[in-house]
Amino acid sequence: MEIRVQEDRFDPGAELNAFSATVSGAGAVVSFTGVVRDVDGGLVAMEIEHYPGMTTKAIAGIADEAARRWSLADVLVIHRYSRLAPGENIMMVATASRHRADAFAAAEYLMDYLKSRAPFWKKEVTRDGAGWVAARDEDEDALTRW
Amino acid sequence: MEIRVQEDRFDPGAELNAFSATVSGAGAVVSFTGVVRDVDGGLVAMEIEHYPGMTTKAIAGIADEAARRWSLADVLVIHRYSRLAPGENIMMVATASRHRADAFAAAEYLMDYLKSRAPFWKKEVTRDGAGWVAARDEDEDALTRW
Amino acid sequence: MIDVLYFAWVRERIGVPREQVDTTAATVADLVEELKAREPRYEAAFADLRALRVALDQELSDFDASLAGVREVAFFPPMTGG
Amino acid sequence: MIDVLYFAWVRERIGVPREQVDTTAATVADLVEELKAREPRYEAAFADLRALRVALDQELSDFDASLAGVREVAFFPPMTGG
Fold first, then answer.
1. Which of A55, A109, B30, D14 is the Cys-Cys partner for B103 at CB 3.0 to 4.6 Å?
2. Range of the domain at A92
3. CATH number assigned to the domain comprising residue B41
4. What's the rounded Cα separation, in Å, for the pair B79 and B59?
5. Which of A92, A120, A125, A137 is most worth mutating to test chain D (most D CB atoms within 10 A of its CB)?
């Protein structure tokens, strides 16, 4: 299991290949990449704050639970903080399993919990000002399916 | 939408990055990579046969249906045929959407249908002989959830 | 004349990947009966139709489908892609 | 003495990312009341506890949890990772 909380950019393709190379026994590899999106065309930057003492611990707890629920060969989580421009990668998860259903379910579980239980906060800086991204009810609701 | 049925190897990481670069408006990118796995340690090769006149058409039909069901910015499907060694990549799908739930659902849908409705057949060559991989009931059952 | 294609173990049992068949069969099932009457290798390949799938002009179809206007019939086991 | 940390708009309203607080509060809710009594900026930050989350020693917790043995308390809005 590898968890990286970092300020620097990362290369999702290179990470995916490196991850796959370490799990040669697993036939199914799923990845999710989150990208800063500029929905209304006015986004200048996305500022991501986190709680350094808690972040890695919280993510490890989520990944441990995923590994307990599904048969996984390995898990990768990368999450950035700092100020990101539109189009930059925010984070990625990758899961590997012998079974595609397990790889998919674990990746979705990781994403649902990272959204609402990992201590990150996003602030959108637009041309008209800045505001904290509000947690959405549907993200909290997504946890109830697990 | 890009569909490639090919004999040659491909680089999943490079494909993922190229795909993501074309869908900058979409915040969520999901990929699945299928790798030849050597479960019992005796696999020499995986031979993949397909029906050239039908394959691309069948995959396009599956991808069209996914695009009809979910909000997708783009879809990529790569599937190889020919004789593959353990550890080689067989195929990948990638989906991009504004919503992570759509990207995940579409990728799972594509995989379920590619398994049972795209005209590929796998033959496992082991040290003890060769045999066609049988379709599994659970793969057929997986289609009923959509 | 109709093009008949075979894949995977169907191809192996019949021994050729494709052939032209001169037939007046009305349905896929009729064509299968014609082929089975020819030689034991067809009999072996078509012994259990539940283990087979058929495509007509590159579209999945059924054994009771009509062959009217069809140019290409393909027989194969359930697919195992992905 | 307890370390109190603030994140996101809680941090912005209170004006500092962390501070040491000399308190004998038994629970998180008691600590919140003490802070609110100090200055309007705390009043503003803690106006609606339903909009806040709390972590004790880097574990998510509740406002009625005990502070016994706790060294670090963090207040923040619902998380928006991923």
1. B30
2. 2-145
3. 3.90.1170.40
4. 10
5. A120
Calculate helix-pair angle for A100-117, A52-69, nearest 10 degrees: 150
What is D2-76's CATH topology?
A: Ubiquitin-like (UB roll) (3.10.20)
CB nearest D80 (choices: A53, A57, A122): A122
Please list the pLDDT of chain B residue by residue as tens digits (146 residues): 999 999 999 999 999 999 999 987 789 999 999 999 887 789 999 999 999 999 999 999 999 999 999 999 999 999 999 999 999 999 999 999 999 999 999 999 999 999 999 999 999 999 999 999 999 988 999 999 99
Q: How many domains does chain A have?
A: 1
Domain borders along chain D are 2-76
**pLDDT tens for each residue of B123-141:** 999 999 999 999 998 899 9
Q: How high is the ipTM of this complex?
A: 0.95
Q: Chains contacting D with at least 3 CB pairs below 8 Å? A: A
- Find the CB nearest B119 among C9, C76, C82: C76
- pTM listed for this prediction: 0.96
Chain B residues lying within 8 Å of A17, measured CB to CB:
11-13
Q: Name which of A22, C79, A14 is nearest B87 in CA terms.
A: A22
A59 in B contact zone (CB under 8 Å) = no
User: Measured between beta carbons, which residues in chain D are less than 8 angstroms from residue A133?
Assistant: 80
